[in-house]
Specification:
It is a single chain. This protein has 462 residues and is of the alpha/beta class. It has 14 helices and eleven strands. It has helices at 3-23, 53-64, 86-98, 109-126, 146-160, 179-187, 208-220, 243-249, 289-292, 307-314, 324-328, 347-382, 405-418, 445-460, and strands spanning 139-143, 169-174, 195-198, 224-231, 255-259, 284-287, 300-304, 386-388, 396-401, 424-428, 431-437. Strands 1-7-6-5-4-2-3 form a seven-stranded mixed sheet, sandwiched between helices. It has a four-stranded antiparallel sheet with strand order 8-9-11-10. α13 crosses α14 (445-460). The longest helix has 36 residues, at 347-382. The mean pLDDT is 97. The protein binds pyridoxal-5'-phosphate. Pyridoxal-5'-phosphate binds at residues 80, 145-147, 178, 180, 231, 233-235, 259, 261-262, 288, 300.
Amino acid sequence: MTPDDFRSAGHELIEWIADYMERVEDLPVLSTVAPGEIRGQLPVDPPEAPEPFAAILADLESIILPGLTHWQSPNFFAYVPANASPPSILGELASAGLGVQGMLWATSPACTELETHMLDWMLAATGLPLRFRSDGSGGGVIQDSASSSTLCALLAARDRSRGVDLHGLRAYTSEHGHSSLAKAMAIAGLAPHQLRTIATDAEHALRTGALIEAIATDRADGCTPFFVMATVGTTSSTAIDPVAEIGAALGADIWLHVDAAYAGVAAVCPELRFVNAGLDRADSYVCNPHKWLLTNFDCSLLYVADAAPLVESLGILPEYLRNPATDTGAVIDYRDWQIPLGRRFRALKLWFVIRSYGLEGLRAHIRRHVALAHELAGWVAEHPDFELAAPTPLSLVCFRHRGGDAVNQAIMDTCNRSGALYLTHTRLDDHLVLRMAVGAVGTERRHVEAAWRAITVAASTE
Ligand SMILES: *Cc1c(COP(=O)(O)O)cnc(C)c1O
Protein backbone atom coordinates (compact mmCIF):
# COMPACT_ATOMS: atom_id res chain seq x y z
CA MET A 1 0.00 0.00 0.00
CA THR A 2 1.58 3.24 -1.11
CA PRO A 3 0.91 6.47 0.78
CA ASP A 4 -1.56 7.34 -1.99
CA ASP A 5 -3.38 4.01 -1.65
CA PHE A 6 -3.39 4.56 2.09
CA ARG A 7 -4.93 7.99 1.62
CA SER A 8 -7.89 6.65 -0.36
CA ALA A 9 -8.39 3.52 1.76
CA GLY A 10 -8.10 5.67 4.88
CA HIS A 11 -10.78 8.04 3.68
CA GLU A 12 -13.04 5.07 2.99
CA LEU A 13 -12.46 3.62 6.44
CA ILE A 14 -13.10 6.93 8.18
CA GLU A 15 -16.34 7.22 6.19
CA TRP A 16 -17.28 3.73 7.29
CA ILE A 17 -16.56 4.50 10.96
CA ALA A 18 -18.52 7.76 10.78
CA ASP A 19 -21.46 5.86 9.26
CA TYR A 20 -21.15 3.29 12.02
CA MET A 21 -21.41 6.04 14.62
CA GLU A 22 -24.63 7.20 12.98
CA ARG A 23 -26.28 3.80 12.69
CA VAL A 24 -25.00 1.99 15.80
CA GLU A 25 -28.11 3.06 17.70
CA ASP A 26 -30.28 0.96 15.39
CA LEU A 27 -28.19 -2.22 15.52
CA PRO A 28 -29.07 -5.00 18.01
CA VAL A 29 -26.78 -4.23 20.95
CA LEU A 30 -25.91 -7.83 21.71
CA SER A 31 -24.74 -10.01 18.83
CA THR A 32 -27.04 -12.95 18.11
CA VAL A 33 -24.55 -15.18 16.27
CA ALA A 34 -24.01 -18.78 17.37
CA PRO A 35 -20.58 -20.04 18.48
CA GLY A 36 -18.41 -20.69 15.40
CA GLU A 37 -20.67 -18.71 13.07
CA ILE A 38 -18.09 -15.99 12.41
CA ARG A 39 -15.14 -18.34 11.89
CA GLY A 40 -17.29 -20.43 9.61
CA GLN A 41 -17.42 -17.51 7.18
CA LEU A 42 -13.65 -17.01 7.09
CA PRO A 43 -11.41 -18.83 4.61
CA VAL A 44 -9.58 -21.74 6.21
CA ASP A 45 -6.24 -20.57 4.85
CA PRO A 46 -4.74 -17.08 4.62
CA PRO A 47 -4.75 -15.59 1.09
CA GLU A 48 -1.68 -16.20 -1.06
CA ALA A 49 -2.31 -13.16 -3.24
CA PRO A 50 -2.82 -9.58 -2.05
CA GLU A 51 -6.47 -8.55 -1.80
CA PRO A 52 -7.92 -5.12 -2.49
CA PHE A 53 -8.82 -2.97 0.50
CA ALA A 54 -12.41 -2.79 -0.73
CA ALA A 55 -12.74 -6.57 -0.23
CA ILE A 56 -11.48 -6.31 3.34
CA LEU A 57 -13.85 -3.46 4.10
CA ALA A 58 -16.77 -5.39 2.60
CA ASP A 59 -16.07 -8.35 4.90
CA LEU A 60 -15.73 -6.03 7.88
CA GLU A 61 -19.29 -4.99 7.14
CA SER A 62 -20.80 -8.37 6.24
CA ILE A 63 -18.91 -10.84 8.46
CA ILE A 64 -17.50 -8.96 11.42
CA LEU A 65 -20.19 -6.39 12.18
CA PRO A 66 -22.96 -8.97 12.87
CA GLY A 67 -20.62 -10.68 15.32
CA LEU A 68 -20.14 -7.58 17.44
CA THR A 69 -21.61 -6.47 20.70
CA HIS A 70 -22.01 -2.76 20.15
CA TRP A 71 -20.24 -1.17 23.08
CA GLN A 72 -20.69 2.24 21.49
CA SER A 73 -24.46 1.87 21.20
CA PRO A 74 -26.36 4.46 23.24
CA ASN A 75 -28.44 1.46 24.39
CA PHE A 76 -25.42 -0.28 25.92
CA PHE A 77 -25.83 -0.36 29.71
CA ALA A 78 -23.85 -3.52 30.53
CA TYR A 79 -20.69 -3.91 32.64
CA VAL A 80 -19.02 -0.50 32.56
CA PRO A 81 -18.80 1.88 29.61
CA ALA A 82 -15.93 1.66 27.11
CA ASN A 83 -16.03 5.13 25.61
CA ALA A 84 -14.57 5.63 22.15
CA SER A 85 -15.08 9.27 21.18
CA PRO A 86 -14.19 10.69 17.77
CA PRO A 87 -11.16 12.65 19.05
CA SER A 88 -9.78 9.58 20.84
CA ILE A 89 -10.18 7.49 17.70
CA LEU A 90 -8.23 10.10 15.77
CA GLY A 91 -5.56 10.21 18.48
CA GLU A 92 -5.30 6.43 18.27
CA LEU A 93 -4.95 6.66 14.51
CA ALA A 94 -2.20 9.26 14.84
CA SER A 95 -0.42 6.98 17.31
CA ALA A 96 -0.63 4.05 14.88
CA GLY A 97 0.44 6.30 12.04
CA LEU A 98 3.57 7.36 13.87
CA GLY A 99 4.32 3.81 15.00
CA VAL A 100 6.48 4.99 17.86
CA GLN A 101 7.85 2.74 20.63
CA GLY A 102 8.08 4.81 23.78
CA MET A 103 9.97 2.42 26.05
CA LEU A 104 12.71 4.94 26.82
CA TRP A 105 12.73 8.72 26.81
CA ALA A 106 15.44 8.43 24.14
CA THR A 107 13.27 6.28 21.86
CA SER A 108 10.86 9.22 21.43
CA PRO A 109 11.20 12.12 23.85
CA ALA A 110 7.78 13.53 22.95
CA CYS A 111 6.09 10.23 23.81
CA THR A 112 7.45 10.32 27.35
CA GLU A 113 7.10 14.04 27.92
CA LEU A 114 3.53 14.28 26.59
CA GLU A 115 2.62 11.31 28.79
CA THR A 116 4.10 12.91 31.92
CA HIS A 117 2.31 16.12 31.04
CA MET A 118 -1.06 14.41 30.49
CA LEU A 119 -0.73 12.72 33.88
CA ASP A 120 -0.17 16.12 35.46
CA TRP A 121 -3.08 17.59 33.48
CA MET A 122 -5.35 14.79 34.67
CA LEU A 123 -4.12 15.30 38.22
CA ALA A 124 -5.14 18.96 38.00
CA ALA A 125 -8.38 18.13 36.16
CA THR A 126 -9.49 15.66 38.83
CA GLY A 127 -8.01 17.41 41.88
CA LEU A 128 -5.69 14.58 42.89
CA PRO A 129 -3.18 15.14 45.70
CA LEU A 130 0.03 16.90 44.65
CA ARG A 131 2.10 13.97 45.95
CA PHE A 132 1.19 12.19 42.70
CA ARG A 133 2.56 15.01 40.54
CA SER A 134 5.63 14.34 38.43
CA ASP A 135 7.78 17.14 39.87
CA GLY A 136 8.10 15.45 43.25
CA SER A 137 9.08 11.93 44.27
CA GLY A 138 5.92 10.53 42.70
CA GLY A 139 4.27 10.67 39.33
CA GLY A 140 2.07 8.85 36.91
CA VAL A 141 2.24 6.49 33.99
CA ILE A 142 -0.27 5.28 31.42
CA GLN A 143 -0.77 1.51 31.54
CA ASP A 144 -2.87 -0.71 29.32
CA SER A 145 -5.35 -1.58 32.05
CA ALA A 146 -6.23 -1.21 35.70
CA SER A 147 -5.26 -4.86 36.06
CA SER A 148 -1.69 -4.02 35.03
CA SER A 149 -1.68 -0.90 37.19
CA THR A 150 -2.71 -2.89 40.24
CA LEU A 151 -0.14 -5.60 39.47
CA CYS A 152 2.62 -2.98 39.25
CA ALA A 153 1.56 -1.45 42.56
CA LEU A 154 1.46 -4.89 44.17
CA LEU A 155 4.94 -5.77 42.89
CA ALA A 156 6.35 -2.48 44.17
CA ALA A 157 4.80 -3.12 47.59
CA ARG A 158 6.01 -6.73 47.66
CA ASP A 159 9.56 -5.80 46.80
CA ARG A 160 9.55 -2.91 49.25
CA SER A 161 9.03 -5.53 51.95
CA ARG A 162 12.46 -6.96 51.16
CA GLY A 163 13.87 -9.34 53.73
CA VAL A 164 10.41 -10.51 54.77
CA ASP A 165 9.44 -14.13 54.13
CA LEU A 166 7.20 -13.93 51.06
CA HIS A 167 4.91 -16.64 52.44
CA GLY A 168 4.13 -14.42 55.42
CA LEU A 169 2.89 -11.48 53.33
CA ARG A 170 -0.82 -10.66 53.56
CA ALA A 171 -2.89 -8.40 51.30
CA TYR A 172 -6.44 -7.14 51.86
CA THR A 173 -9.40 -5.94 49.87
CA SER A 174 -13.14 -6.01 50.34
CA GLU A 175 -15.27 -8.91 49.21
CA HIS A 176 -16.24 -6.66 46.28
CA GLY A 177 -12.63 -5.78 45.41
CA HIS A 178 -11.86 -6.41 41.74
CA SER A 179 -10.70 -9.86 40.67
CA SER A 180 -7.61 -8.29 39.08
CA LEU A 181 -6.02 -8.23 42.54
CA ALA A 182 -6.42 -12.00 42.95
CA LYS A 183 -4.81 -12.43 39.55
CA ALA A 184 -2.00 -10.00 40.43
CA MET A 185 -1.32 -12.00 43.60
CA ALA A 186 -0.89 -15.16 41.54
CA ILE A 187 1.44 -13.42 39.09
CA ALA A 188 3.43 -12.01 42.02
CA GLY A 189 3.96 -15.53 43.31
CA LEU A 190 1.63 -15.15 46.26
CA ALA A 191 -0.90 -17.83 47.20
CA PRO A 192 -4.67 -17.25 47.21
CA HIS A 193 -4.85 -17.51 51.02
CA GLN A 194 -2.44 -14.57 51.27
CA LEU A 195 -5.24 -12.32 50.03
CA ARG A 196 -7.83 -11.63 52.71
CA THR A 197 -11.27 -10.51 51.62
CA ILE A 198 -12.87 -8.20 54.13
CA ALA A 199 -16.58 -8.01 54.89
CA THR A 200 -18.63 -5.08 53.67
CA ASP A 201 -21.37 -2.95 55.20
CA ALA A 202 -24.99 -2.46 54.18
CA GLU A 203 -23.85 -0.27 51.27
CA HIS A 204 -21.31 -2.89 50.10
CA ALA A 205 -18.28 -0.83 51.18
CA LEU A 206 -15.37 -2.28 53.12
CA ARG A 207 -15.80 -2.32 56.91
CA THR A 208 -12.72 -0.62 58.33
CA GLY A 209 -13.24 -2.32 61.68
CA ALA A 210 -13.11 -5.74 60.06
CA LEU A 211 -9.95 -4.74 58.18
CA ILE A 212 -8.24 -3.57 61.35
CA GLU A 213 -9.20 -6.82 63.06
CA ALA A 214 -7.89 -8.97 60.20
CA ILE A 215 -4.60 -7.09 60.17
CA ALA A 216 -4.22 -7.47 63.94
CA THR A 217 -5.00 -11.19 63.78
CA ASP A 218 -2.47 -11.72 61.00
CA ARG A 219 0.20 -9.80 62.88
CA ALA A 220 -0.48 -11.86 66.00
CA ASP A 221 0.01 -14.96 63.83
CA GLY A 222 3.43 -13.71 62.78
CA CYS A 223 2.34 -12.64 59.29
CA THR A 224 3.26 -9.38 57.56
CA PRO A 225 0.35 -7.27 56.29
CA PHE A 226 1.81 -5.32 53.34
CA PHE A 227 -0.91 -4.23 50.91
CA VAL A 228 -4.46 -2.94 51.11
CA MET A 229 -6.54 -2.24 48.03
CA ALA A 230 -9.45 0.10 48.68
CA THR A 231 -12.02 0.51 45.93
CA VAL A 232 -13.71 3.72 44.90
CA GLY A 233 -16.60 2.47 42.80
CA THR A 234 -16.74 -1.32 42.91
CA THR A 235 -17.59 -3.14 39.71
CA SER A 236 -20.61 -4.76 41.32
CA SER A 237 -22.35 -1.66 42.59
CA THR A 238 -19.99 1.41 42.61
CA ALA A 239 -19.67 1.07 46.37
CA ILE A 240 -17.09 3.47 47.75
CA ASP A 241 -14.76 2.19 50.45
CA PRO A 242 -13.97 4.66 53.27
CA VAL A 243 -10.48 5.42 51.97
CA ALA A 244 -9.70 8.16 54.52
CA GLU A 245 -10.71 5.94 57.43
CA ILE A 246 -8.76 3.01 56.00
CA GLY A 247 -5.67 5.16 55.42
CA ALA A 248 -5.80 6.50 58.98
CA ALA A 249 -5.88 2.93 60.32
CA LEU A 250 -2.81 1.76 58.43
CA GLY A 251 0.82 2.10 59.41
CA ALA A 252 3.27 3.45 56.82
CA ASP A 253 4.57 -0.10 56.33
CA ILE A 254 1.32 -1.09 54.58
CA TRP A 255 0.95 0.05 50.97
CA LEU A 256 -2.44 1.59 50.29
CA HIS A 257 -3.57 1.17 46.68
CA VAL A 258 -6.82 2.78 45.57
CA ASP A 259 -8.68 1.22 42.67
CA ALA A 260 -10.92 3.86 41.12
CA ALA A 261 -10.79 2.32 37.65
CA TYR A 262 -14.35 3.25 36.72
CA ALA A 263 -15.33 6.00 39.12
CA GLY A 264 -12.15 8.05 39.45
CA VAL A 265 -12.67 10.17 36.36
CA ALA A 266 -15.92 11.53 37.86
CA ALA A 267 -13.65 13.87 39.82
CA VAL A 268 -13.38 16.15 36.78
CA CYS A 269 -16.63 17.52 38.28
CA PRO A 270 -15.90 19.45 41.48
CA GLU A 271 -19.25 18.33 42.95
CA LEU A 272 -18.17 14.67 42.55
CA ARG A 273 -14.75 15.07 44.19
CA PHE A 274 -15.99 12.95 47.08
CA VAL A 275 -14.45 10.12 45.08
CA ASN A 276 -11.02 11.52 46.00
CA ALA A 277 -11.58 11.54 49.76
CA GLY A 278 -8.59 10.11 51.61
CA LEU A 279 -6.27 9.89 48.61
CA ASP A 280 -3.63 11.98 50.39
CA ARG A 281 -2.60 8.81 52.25
CA ALA A 282 -2.66 6.51 49.21
CA ASP A 283 0.63 5.11 47.92
CA SER A 284 -0.88 4.42 44.52
CA TYR A 285 -4.06 5.17 42.66
CA VAL A 286 -5.54 3.93 39.40
CA CYS A 287 -8.32 5.33 37.22
CA ASN A 288 -9.26 4.49 33.64
CA PRO A 289 -10.08 7.22 31.13
CA HIS A 290 -10.75 4.25 28.83
CA LYS A 291 -14.00 3.53 30.59
CA TRP A 292 -15.95 6.69 31.16
CA LEU A 293 -13.78 9.56 29.94
CA LEU A 294 -14.24 9.54 26.18
CA THR A 295 -10.93 7.75 25.56
CA ASN A 296 -10.88 4.44 23.74
CA PHE A 297 -9.24 1.40 25.29
CA ASP A 298 -6.45 1.27 26.37
CA CYS A 299 -5.64 4.13 28.72
CA SER A 300 -5.29 3.44 32.44
CA LEU A 301 -3.62 6.00 34.68
CA LEU A 302 -1.45 4.73 37.52
CA TYR A 303 -0.19 7.31 40.01
CA VAL A 304 2.36 6.61 42.72
CA ALA A 305 3.31 8.87 45.61
CA ASP A 306 6.88 7.58 45.43
CA ALA A 307 8.19 6.18 42.18
CA ALA A 308 11.33 4.67 43.74
CA PRO A 309 9.82 1.33 44.90
CA LEU A 310 8.10 0.87 41.53
CA VAL A 311 11.28 1.51 39.57
CA GLU A 312 13.32 -0.62 41.96
CA SER A 313 10.90 -3.46 41.41
CA LEU A 314 10.49 -3.18 37.63
CA GLY A 315 13.62 -1.36 36.45
CA ILE A 316 16.23 -3.23 34.47
CA LEU A 317 18.96 -1.91 32.18
CA PRO A 318 20.51 -4.30 29.70
CA GLU A 319 23.54 -3.05 27.79
CA TYR A 320 21.66 -2.65 24.52
CA LEU A 321 19.31 -0.08 26.06
CA ARG A 322 22.05 2.08 27.62
CA ASN A 323 21.96 5.66 26.39
CA PRO A 324 23.28 9.04 27.57
CA ALA A 325 19.86 10.41 28.57
CA THR A 326 19.18 7.44 30.84
CA ASP A 327 22.67 7.70 32.32
CA THR A 328 22.14 11.33 33.33
CA GLY A 329 19.04 10.35 35.33
CA ALA A 330 17.36 13.52 34.05
CA VAL A 331 14.62 11.70 32.13
CA ILE A 332 11.85 9.20 32.84
CA ASP A 333 12.13 5.83 31.15
CA TYR A 334 8.59 4.49 31.46
CA ARG A 335 9.59 0.92 30.65
CA ASP A 336 10.72 0.86 34.30
CA TRP A 337 7.16 1.66 35.41
CA GLN A 338 5.39 -1.25 33.68
CA ILE A 339 5.64 -4.97 32.85
CA PRO A 340 6.43 -4.96 29.09
CA LEU A 341 9.36 -3.21 27.51
CA GLY A 342 7.55 -1.80 24.47
CA ARG A 343 4.92 0.82 24.90
CA ARG A 344 2.29 2.53 22.79
CA PHE A 345 1.97 6.30 22.43
CA ARG A 346 -1.25 6.38 24.45
CA ALA A 347 -0.85 9.93 25.70
CA LEU A 348 -1.69 11.17 22.22
CA LYS A 349 -5.33 10.16 22.37
CA LEU A 350 -5.74 11.59 25.87
CA TRP A 351 -4.24 14.86 24.61
CA PHE A 352 -6.67 14.87 21.67
CA VAL A 353 -9.59 14.18 24.01
CA ILE A 354 -8.76 16.77 26.66
CA ARG A 355 -8.14 19.47 24.07
CA SER A 356 -11.15 18.63 21.91
CA TYR A 357 -13.66 18.62 24.76
CA GLY A 358 -11.96 20.95 27.22
CA LEU A 359 -12.56 20.31 30.89
CA GLU A 360 -16.02 21.81 30.41
CA GLY A 361 -16.89 19.16 27.85
CA LEU A 362 -15.54 16.36 30.02
CA ARG A 363 -17.62 17.60 32.95
CA ALA A 364 -20.75 17.86 30.81
CA HIS A 365 -20.24 14.25 29.65
CA ILE A 366 -19.99 12.91 33.23
CA ARG A 367 -22.79 15.13 34.54
CA ARG A 368 -25.21 14.04 31.85
CA HIS A 369 -24.79 10.38 32.79
CA VAL A 370 -24.95 11.00 36.52
CA ALA A 371 -28.17 12.98 36.09
CA LEU A 372 -29.70 10.28 33.87
CA ALA A 373 -28.73 7.55 36.34
CA HIS A 374 -30.31 9.49 39.18
CA GLU A 375 -33.46 9.95 37.15
CA LEU A 376 -33.55 6.22 36.41
CA ALA A 377 -33.01 5.44 40.10
CA GLY A 378 -36.02 7.65 40.82
CA TRP A 379 -38.21 5.69 38.39
CA VAL A 380 -37.08 2.42 39.98
CA ALA A 381 -37.81 3.69 43.48
CA GLU A 382 -41.31 4.82 42.45
CA HIS A 383 -42.24 1.56 40.76
CA PRO A 384 -44.27 -0.77 43.00
CA ASP A 385 -42.63 -3.96 41.66
CA PHE A 386 -38.99 -2.81 41.67
CA GLU A 387 -36.53 -1.69 44.32
CA LEU A 388 -33.05 -0.20 44.36
CA ALA A 389 -30.39 -2.68 45.50
CA ALA A 390 -27.58 -0.23 46.21
CA PRO A 391 -26.98 3.52 46.42
CA THR A 392 -26.36 5.36 43.15
CA PRO A 393 -23.41 7.64 43.91
CA LEU A 394 -22.52 8.03 40.21
CA SER A 395 -23.94 6.52 37.04
CA LEU A 396 -24.55 2.85 37.82
CA VAL A 397 -28.05 1.88 38.91
CA CYS A 398 -28.45 -1.46 40.73
CA PHE A 399 -32.01 -2.66 41.13
CA ARG A 400 -34.19 -5.72 41.20
CA HIS A 401 -37.74 -6.83 40.68
CA ARG A 402 -39.35 -7.85 43.95
CA GLY A 403 -40.37 -11.17 42.40
CA GLY A 404 -37.04 -12.89 43.07
CA ASP A 405 -33.98 -14.11 41.16
CA ALA A 406 -35.79 -16.09 38.47
CA VAL A 407 -37.94 -13.11 37.52
CA ASN A 408 -34.93 -10.81 37.35
CA GLN A 409 -33.04 -13.32 35.24
CA ALA A 410 -36.01 -13.59 32.88
CA ILE A 411 -36.34 -9.81 32.59
CA MET A 412 -32.66 -9.50 31.74
CA ASP A 413 -32.77 -12.32 29.21
CA THR A 414 -35.85 -10.89 27.50
CA CYS A 415 -34.35 -7.42 27.27
CA ASN A 416 -30.97 -8.60 26.02
CA ARG A 417 -32.49 -10.98 23.48
CA SER A 418 -34.58 -8.16 22.06
CA GLY A 419 -31.44 -6.33 20.93
CA ALA A 420 -32.98 -3.04 22.06
CA LEU A 421 -30.68 -2.71 25.06
CA TYR A 422 -27.99 -4.60 26.92
CA LEU A 423 -27.76 -4.82 30.68
CA THR A 424 -25.89 -7.20 32.99
CA HIS A 425 -26.24 -8.46 36.54
CA THR A 426 -24.38 -8.98 39.77
CA ARG A 427 -25.08 -10.59 43.14
CA LEU A 428 -25.56 -8.44 46.22
CA ASP A 429 -26.60 -9.86 49.59
CA ASP A 430 -27.15 -13.14 47.79
CA HIS A 431 -29.77 -11.72 45.44
CA LEU A 432 -29.50 -11.42 41.70
CA VAL A 433 -29.35 -7.72 40.93
CA LEU A 434 -29.73 -5.99 37.57
CA ARG A 435 -27.15 -3.34 36.70
CA MET A 436 -27.56 -0.46 34.31
CA ALA A 437 -24.39 1.54 33.78
CA VAL A 438 -25.27 4.79 32.05
CA GLY A 439 -22.12 5.94 30.30
CA ALA A 440 -21.99 5.45 26.55
CA VAL A 441 -20.89 8.52 24.60
CA GLY A 442 -24.23 8.81 22.77
CA THR A 443 -26.66 7.91 25.57
CA GLU A 444 -29.41 10.48 25.98
CA ARG A 445 -32.51 10.64 28.13
CA ARG A 446 -34.66 8.96 25.46
CA HIS A 447 -32.41 5.89 25.47
CA VAL A 448 -32.65 5.50 29.24
CA GLU A 449 -36.41 6.02 29.07
CA ALA A 450 -36.79 3.40 26.35
CA ALA A 451 -34.63 0.95 28.30
CA TRP A 452 -36.70 1.41 31.44
CA ARG A 453 -39.88 0.97 29.42
CA ALA A 454 -38.52 -2.27 27.94
CA ILE A 455 -37.63 -3.53 31.42
CA THR A 456 -41.05 -2.79 32.87
CA VAL A 457 -42.77 -4.33 29.85
CA ALA A 458 -40.64 -7.47 30.20
CA ALA A 459 -41.51 -7.56 33.90
CA SER A 460 -45.24 -7.29 33.22
CA THR A 461 -45.16 -10.39 31.01
CA GLU A 462 -43.37 -12.43 33.66
C1 LIG B 1 -12.94 -2.18 35.21
C2 LIG B 1 -12.35 -2.31 36.54
C3 LIG B 1 -11.13 -2.97 36.73
C4 LIG B 1 -10.40 -3.65 35.61
O1 LIG B 1 -10.02 -2.73 34.65
P1 LIG B 1 -9.13 -3.16 33.39
O2 LIG B 1 -8.60 -1.85 32.91
O3 LIG B 1 -10.04 -3.82 32.44
O4 LIG B 1 -8.06 -4.07 33.89
C5 LIG B 1 -10.61 -3.00 38.00
N1 LIG B 1 -11.24 -2.42 39.03
C6 LIG B 1 -12.42 -1.78 38.89
C7 LIG B 1 -13.07 -1.16 40.08
C8 LIG B 1 -13.01 -1.69 37.64
O5 LIG B 1 -14.16 -1.02 37.49
